[in-house]
Predict the 3D structure of the following.
Amino acid sequence: MMHTFWAAVGFLTTLPVPRRDLPPDALHRAARWFPTIGLLLGVMLAGSAWALAWLFPPTVTAVLVVGLWAVLTGALHLDGVADCGDGLLPPLARTRRLEIMRDPRLGAFGVTTLVLILLLKTAALAALAALPLMKSALAPALLLAPAWARWLILLAARLPPARAEGMGASLGLALSNRQLALAALLPVALTAVMGVWHWPVILAMGAALLAGLGVLHLAQQRLGGVTGDVFGAVVEVSEAVFLCVACLRVASGTY
């Protein structure tokens, strides 16, 4: 069990993990840990945001937290959302879309998508950090957004891959409905508990799930399936939407 846990940590984060000889299906078996790893990331981000909020103004705090977020994940998902911007948004043939998404160079759509995601995350975190800590949904949002985003990877992996090779095909989880439901227990329980404290996080959860499903629908329509880049886009888009919705009522100063 710990082998699969470390496999999940090594895949989803840049945190140091014990060097082990893992079987070929280790990542497949590690899928159960994805929401837990998301929560682990959330704990580190929320703790860092809490400490930084005592030292810096909200905008600086937000920029530093988003930077730490990218470092902890190795910018893995940011790379995916940028590639999807180039591959999914412009009017192209399916084969051309897949070729563009494999190209390491970024185009205008990819750069624009990446910048918008980073700006949305930073602006939402700055809005949340501007409120007193006890009145803000900053900590709940940072804890829940990464956990739900990584559960969405499991949902995405159930869809057919867009090509025979690559992450979309190798992950190949083929999770049953029961396994998918069990993996959701942790984020569901946390959302229920934190929703009592700050009800907007429940609305944010729903919006994030819908945003992730929207990305998957677009990928199926334009690629015929999913790829590793689509997994990254699902994570980044759902996290950004979660943070934005979590701060919907910041303008009025109430929850």
About this structure: DSSP finds twelve helices and no strands in the chain. Confidence is low (pLDDT under 50) at residues 250-255.
